[in-house]
Known about the structure:
Layout: E1 3-4, E2 30-34, E3 49-52, E4 58-61, E5 80-82, H1 88-91, E6 94-96, E7 102-103, E8 106-107, E9 109-112, H2 118-126, E10 130-132, H3 134-146, H4 151-154, E11 155-157, E12 163-166, E13 169-174, E14 181-182, H5 189-197, E15 202-203, E16 209-213, E17 219-222, H6 231-239, E18 244-248, H7 257-268, E19 272-276, E20 283-284, E21 287-288, H8 293-300, E22 306-307, E23 315-317, E24 323-325
Parallel strand pairs: 4-5, 10-11, 17-18, 18-19
Antiparallel strand pairs: 1-22, 2-3, 2-23, 3-4, 6-9, 7-8, 12-13, 13-16, 14-15, 16-17, 20-21, 23-24
Amino acid sequence: MKTIALLAVSAIAFTGITAVTASPANAAGVKVTPLGSHEGEFCARDRAMIFEDPDGTRIMVDPGMSVTGGDDPRIGKLDGVLLTSVHVDHIGGFALAAPNGGACGKPAIKVKKMPSSNFAEIVVKKGAVSLAGGEMRSFLRAQVGAAGGNAKKQVNVLRFGAEGKIGGVRVAIVPVTHSNGANPGFLTKELAATLKKDGLTAYVGPDNGFILTFTNGLVVYLSGDSGITAEQDVTVRRFYKAKLAIINGGDMFTSGPKEAAFSINELIKPNAAIPQHMNEQATKGGKLVAGTKTAKFAAMVKGIPVHLPLSGRTMEFDANAKCVSGC
């Protein structure tokens, strides 16, 4: 895994450091493992990440389309699966036939999962639970129930302003500035046809951004597809005091690289950042490609390390978001 920080002139990255260390009592680290389409790379469709608490709790966020489904051997044991959006690239309306198929910039995503999803398959096959707010919970319950799971026990409500738990990990939902309409492929043909006639999509309630608080004290912010929002200052930084920010910057459908950098520099002010949802081949041979949106984002982030989410490479963070291994 490569760690990137700023160069004043160039978007080419170098290893950055922070001066803060975890106390001996909280020395155990949180492990973060991206699961992308191509081993050791950060590719166009990569979304999925697995977080492992020092107590063994394992949570996947946004299975997306870079896994093969519930039987993907890379996933392992899971206690929870969280979803920021029901869009196909997050819930997983399609899947890989196998890792490393196609090109990093255009992975071979050919296996159709709709009307089911990678999310539903993984929750059911792993016996995991999920937390979601409002209408999104109802939609995910229907997904999990149709896949053979116990929908009422496995998908539980968590609304903005509250906090739940999965194992030892505390989970809070924070607002996202983005849309959240279900693809017609998830709907009955009759409903899909009716909505299409009127130019509508099936709205599934607001997106979910997440705050994860781990037992070693590390607080992680997951932006989902959010654009710049004052919540990143008031709620994420001032209230939850997030130290590690995982933020989108793919442009057009989400924040662009300069907007994402503004959120990091001026609003969230974390100790480290991980770019996500960049919609490009960001690396080649595990190294950042110059001129990419990811490189531009890294070049604009000030004074903190930016860690690349290379598929299958586990990073470990202490309570202050200092990477202690794998970066």
